Amino acid sequence: MIRLALALAKAGGLVVVFAAVLGGMALVTGTGVLVDSAFRAQPPLRLSGADVLVSARQSIPLKEEPDIALPERARIPGSLVASASEVPGVAAVAGDLAFPAAVGSGTAGRTADPATAGHGWSSLALSGRITAGRAPRAADEIAVRGARVGDRLRLTAAGTPGTYRVSAVVDAPGVYFTDAVATALAARTAGRAGTVDLVAVRAAPGVSPETLAARLKAGLGDGYEYATGRDRADAESPGAAAGRGLLLVLPSSIGGISLLVVGFVVGGGLALSVNRQRRDLALLRAAGATPRQVRRLVAVQAAAAALPAVPFGAALGYFLAARFGELLAGIGLVRADQPLVYGPLPAVAAALLLLAVTRVAAWAGSLRVSRMPVVSGLPEPRTPSPGRTRAGLLLMLAALGLSVTPLAVRSEAGMIGPGIASIVAVIGLALAGPRLVQGVARALAGSRLMTRLPGPLWLAVHNSHGYALRTAGAVAALGMVVTLGLSVVLTQTTMAKARSDEVALGLRGLVTITAPGLGGVPRDLLADVRSRTEAAGMAMTTVVTEPMLTGDDPGLMARPAMALGPDAEGLVDLDLADGRLSGLKGAAVAVEEGLGRVGRSMDVIMGDGARVRARVAATYRRGLGFGPIVVSRDLAAAHTTTGLDSAVLARPADFGDLARRPGLRFDSRAAGPQAAMASAQTLVNVAVLAVLLGYVLVAVANRLVATTTARREEFAGLRAIGLTRRQLRRVVRWEALLVGAAASVSGLVLSAVPLVLLSVGFLARPLPAGPLWLVPASILAVMTIVSLAMELPARKIMT
Amino acid sequence: MRPGIEAVVTLERVSKTYGDVVALDDVSLAFPRGRFVAVMGPSGSGKSTLLQAAAALEPPTSGEITICGVEVTRMSETRRTEWRRKHLGYVFQSYNLLPTVTVEDNVTLPLRMAGVRPDRAWLGQLIDRMGLRDRMRHLPTELSGGQQQRAAIVRALAARPDVVFADEPTGALDLRSAAHVLDLLRELVDDLGQTVVMVTHDPAAAARAHDTVVMADGRVLDVLPAPTAEDLAVRLARLSGERVA
């Protein structure tokens, strides 16, 4: 059976299956590695000497979705330290604090995140050892790594600059102050007196971490998290946990789409392969093979093509995952110190999935041919039904309708229409493609110009008409590549431009002063700047709200938010619809017009999980750039890890010696809260899209190669009636050009309509913002791939 | 060949082997102008290979082929195709019409590819003779087998070639259509002075020709002038018998 199956197999179709499985393995393995890493990665742990870390709950549990991770530190009572030390089996306890600390220059005390680099001396007992000197005793003494005892370092700690003497050198990252100083620095923020970030506990010999965690829970209560093992890293840095959640969410959406695409591509390849051996299979049936046997034969062929692709695809998948991990780290979506885990599980799972997909595709692909009556011989290729064409045209029309939304709705919601429009249009193209290609080719073939064309072009046009069904699939798939590529990228860049335009308008005439290396803007800076010019403090944080915009998660959703104080009145122009920014005091928020009324109150969950009932102080129109919600600085200060401002917004002035202060950065342009999230999303979307579209391109190229290779007899016939090889090559070249042109034109038209309407709606001009060179580039890519995939094999089979 | 009659195509010691199989074994033969010649033999006798070699479709392993006075085996592929296009017409068993274009476009396709303006009067005469006047705007699939083969004959003759090669032209036709096509081929030679070389395994078809070349095992056994179908049938039966014995 196997030998017969392999003897009958036609290489062309099976090469398509091989390539499809290869690419599918790579995609599924790659995303699998990310998911696997999200579960198993072991980020570096500072408090590595602690067996159990007690912390506040840093997530909001949801019923059916992954929990929402809270990136801002929630504190726990300092009294827990004493309670924990009384639990049996505890060997050592430390109340851990983390606050911004940044050494002015050099690598001393350097950590991944300056916002949480400062700690009290007692934390060192569970994070490292002293290698030289003695513990800091005086208020101006510190212990760091990478300095010498006796060095004097300029330091910004919890937003306060000062000079400190190194009394000890340690082997752990971070800057260690005396416990008294650390408590004072950490408690500078309102409402934090008497709290700690974590309670770090070491177990006595013979007590397992799990046992200890259970005892602690019994002793301290249910309201806290008791992290052991790998979970300790999440307890230690809640921001990283939030990032890792993304590792889980992203690939699951990508993985779903790619599995779908893989299914289609594998199915297409098998259909092609079955189609090419229809005659042989019909003969087998005539010779007495049962339909079951024919299906089994096709399944054996499919397996023979799919199995060799598995190891190569898996290798490619691990490679892709590494690149994708770098990309995510590069844009700050996951921390660079969070390594990916390369286990065998993703490859095994991918192999099982892909082989199952292949098996199903083989069964579906051979169903028709295996069941045909023995006498009928060759089944006619199906012609597309008029219903299918009509449905396709309707979908394309619907896409046009959807793309009008930006003209009416100028907010984030307005972008959804065009986004869906391009996908709907692509499906429409796939349905109506064969008839459309046929119609266009018929119009071309029937035109008066035809008689004047040179022979090869004349024949190419007629072939494109007569064999429209042969190439329509390729045209539709390539058109999809052009449409999706252009519309996804340019929609995002256009929206990014619209957002940054709004932010620029809102912050017009202001200078932004930030201190990225210090973990937050120093406390004295705002007053200092105010002594010279008008200025306002601004912070960035995360809030969790009920859905606010169309397209939000139906449950709770975390989103970045800007925090402003009453001093922003007259400086920051949110284009207020009602109320005043001067009301942003205490528990107050401003929301986008239509999401709330001034004077009413609304419930907000802050980034540390605190539930706040806030008063709406103002409503504004520039929601596109500034997001749907702006919280008061007072709220942000009480519920962020650092409690510091992210930036000072000031009218330009002579900043004098400020301009030379180390660690400060002056910018004349500022980014809104939406920009960071959106640009990260754009990059991820584009990267994923690029991989998927690349896969589709390879699959299409493969199909074209297979269809061209199947034209051996046709070419021989043409040669026999007098075409020279050159002319035959030219015929194929013209055909390739026609296919490429049809794909490019349909792709351009389908993407242009939504993009132009989007640009008119959001930028008040027809041209979208962003890399417009993508247009010629995508056309060039399509043309090149079609030419190569048709001309090279044509050359090979010409006799 | 009778002296004084010009040969359109000459084969000189032509051999063709496929691996170990000898399809043509040192064949020398000349096809005279203005004659209808049939090449007959049992299957595997090398008659189709002979036709393909004589029509310069496939170069022989050794030997020389002269078409209209020019030796073609050493020509470049492109030159040979152009020479063939100018001097030869070809009729296939499976018609070899392009399904995507009309009969009219099919008929003029070689001319179009050669960049030659069709001779409308000549074409009209051929179309009328083949009875295809009202069929020219149809697609080949809308024609009967006989009509398709007649269209292929028009195409082969459209460029006024010196010789038309026909490879089992009636092999796919029913008896009536086959007889009609054979009559038309004979008339082309008798009325219009064309030259036709036809490969067939059917004695009745071969009997319509002026001369019949009988082949077996890659060699020419005999050239019979105006044989009857009965003679040829006996001859063929004996050949098959010898091969079995």
TrEMBL record, chain A:
The lineage of its organism: Bacteria, Bacillati, Actinomycetota, Actinomycetes, Streptosporangiales. The keyword Transmembrane helix applies. Residues 253-373, 688-798 form the ABC3 transporter permease C-terminal domain. Keywords: Cell membrane, Membrane, Transmembrane, Transmembrane helix. This is ABC transport system permease protein. PANTHER family: INNER MEMBRANE PROTEIN (PTHR30287:SF1), MEMBRANE COMPONENT OF PREDICTED ABC SUPERFAMILY METABOLITE UPTAKE TRANSPORTER (PTHR30287). Its main location: membrane. The chain crosses the membrane at residues 254-275, 296-321, 341-362, 391-409, 415-432, 467-490, 683-705, 736-764, 770-790. The keyword Membrane applies. It is found in: Cell membrane. It is a multi-pass membrane protein.
UniProtKB/TrEMBL annotation, chain B:
It comes from the Bacteria. The keyword Cytoplasm does not apply. Transmembrane segments: none annotated. Keywords: ATP-binding, Nucleotide-binding, Transport. InterPro entries: AAA+_ATPase (IPR003593), ABC_transporter-like_ATP-bd (IPR003439), ABC_transporter-like_CS (IPR017871), ABC_transpr_LolD-like (IPR015854), MacB-like_ATP-bd (IPR017911), P-loop_NTPase (IPR027417). GO terms for molecular function: ATP binding. Residues 9-242 form the ABC transporter domain. It holds the Pfam family ABC_tran. PANTHER family: ABC TRANSPORTER RELATED, IMPORT ATP-BINDING PROTEIN. This is ABC transport system ATP-binding protein. It comes from Nonomuraea roseoviolacea subsp. carminata.
